[in-house]
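sorry to bug you again but im stuck and you know this stuff better than me. below you get a single protein, a line of residues and a line of whole numbers that encode the local backbone shape. mainly i need to know what kind of three dimensional shape the backbone takes. anything you notice is useful, everything is just below:

***
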Amino acid sequence: MYIIEKSLKLSENVYEIWVNAPHVTRNAKAGQFVIIRTDETGERIPLTISKISGDLVRIIFMAVGKTTHALAAVPAGGAISDIAGPLGCPSEIKKYGTCVLVGGGVGIASTPVIAQALKDAGNRVIGILGARNADFLILEDEMAEICDKLLIATDDGSKGHHGFAADLLKQVIDDENVDVPEVKRVVFCSGKIYYDLLARKNAYNARDIALVRIEQLYPFPEKQLETIVEKYNKALVYLWVQEEPENMGAWTYINYHFRKIPLIHITRLPSGSPATGLHEIHQAEQEEILYKVFRTCDCERKNKYCGLQCMVGKSRQEILRQFNYIFFDKRFNL
């Protein structure tokens, strides 16, 4: 049996319990969960770990069915039959730079432990919390202590932004680590590929390449992208980069909606499958995508990557003809 040391009602049908479970707390990591059974005949329910303190694990849940109502009814000092864990793959915690953590409703329960882990790893953490109204907002004070910046959204506007938590995310995220007048390449992308591109950019200290994340595809953020293009009006090459094959992913949609610039796509070759089926081929193709963005310098400058300095003064049309981005003789050996 496992003792519930603390029990508290946070909002309507949302409860917090602290369970004495040292076998869980010894190995628990951010993003993992436990499975709880209130009694020997009860069903097993998975619940996210919200916080660890000594031998105590905090669980926050919404009472919506027979088992969760039974769990909510166990008072402080009472006991539950089983708690198994920690289970599941933990969140990938490392130093990214700036991280945005979004939680809504009872899902906010998982954010403090992840936010703290990201903070401990040396990141700047921005928290965005959303709820139906101010009465349903939980853990605000705790997240405010952890996060460098905390934003609030409520559906009815009773606190913070009037709307959804996701509304507070920028639809388009510009690159702050650039010398704007020197930018020759603007790279548009979305999703995980951004981090591969960012790692390569940081390795080369490429401040003349702007990485622009499009975080909202629909409705298409045309005005925001027009602002980006105007900002980098001296750029010679605009790229759309994705991990998916040319006939998949967002490329077709992007190309249809964003026709005001000569956008070049860098993708995997067209395929009937989104995956190669072999890790070595996947890695080689991934490296090829990065190579096409950060091309090798083959002029007398001998830079780490081609900065397009040789192209200064020529029109974009000449760049596209003379500095062919996509087709080159050498393919990576698979």
Notes: Confidence is low (pLDDT under 50) at residues 321-334. DSSP finds nine helices and 16 strands in the chain.
